[in-house]
Amino acid sequence: MNEIIKVDNDTQTVSARDLYEALEIEKRFSAWFETNSQGFIEGEDYHGAYLKVQSNQYGGEKELQDYQLSIDMAKHICLMSRTKKGKECRQYLIDLEKAWNSPEQILARALKVADQTINNLTVKIEELKPKAEFFDAVADSKTAISMNEVAKVLSIKGYGRNNLFEYLRNSKILDRWNVPYQRYVDEGWFRVIEQTYTRNGEPVVTTKTLVYQKGVDKIRKLIESEATA
Predict the structure, then answer these.
(1) Cα Rg of the chain (Å, integer)
(2) 8, 100, 212, 214: which sits with the fewest CB atoms below 10 Å from its CB?
(3) What angle do CA 27, 29, 30 make, to 5 degrees?
(4) What angle do CA 183, 177, 184 make, to 5 degrees?
(5) Could you count the other beta carbons within 10 Å of the beta carbon of residue 52?
(6) Could you give the CA distance from residue 178 to residue 176 in angstroms, rounded to a whole number?
(7) Residue-wise pLDDT tens digits, 193-228
(8) Sign (positive/negative) of CA torsion 209, 210, 212, 215?
(9) Taking the complete model, does pTM exceed 0.85, yes or no?
(10) Coil, strand, or helix at residue 58?
(11) Which whole-number Å values give the CA distances from 197 to 35, 201, 205, 207, in the listed order?
């Protein structure tokens, strides 16, 4: 089948300017479209679009107002033209629809969609794999992890290590020194360890808050519940 007018197979639409040229309309495009779009609904039967064309010999471009028309709207406009070209274009669109809806074409489109879905899932799995492996390692571990590692496990936008500490302080889970209140230690969220270092020749003891898997899960649920509240 010789192509009389180009049809976007993905959206099943026709460019209004392409149809305008195929019908060999002498009237100005804007006036022609205003007349022929009467009775049709923007957003359903047609959508606004822009067509880039070369504006000069040096490769400059400009944008022309265009519209993407549904096949039904395009066929109706062809019919309203009452010309030989209109009849030819309309019959071409009808034949194209028949071919589009043949069992072979339906199967081909279904296979294409399935392939794209598989490809998207494969990419997503590869993206999530490092996080999943790390999360599984934490879940299987009986040891606690640092707040920096918790931030990596959660991977929630805006909740890095420092923001997590601030969030837990504001939630009255940690005190001003980032030490958990005893009830959360008793519930198995946290473990507090002592660290010793030397300053000016003198030993200094500090505390460090570590988070068990149960705590990681509780923190995640708290943040997500506030996000959807």
Answers:
(1) 32
(2) 8
(3) 115
(4) 15
(5) 10
(6) 5
(7) 887 777 777 777 788 899 998 899 899 999 988 877
(8) positive
(9) no
(10) coil
(11) 83, 9, 7, 11
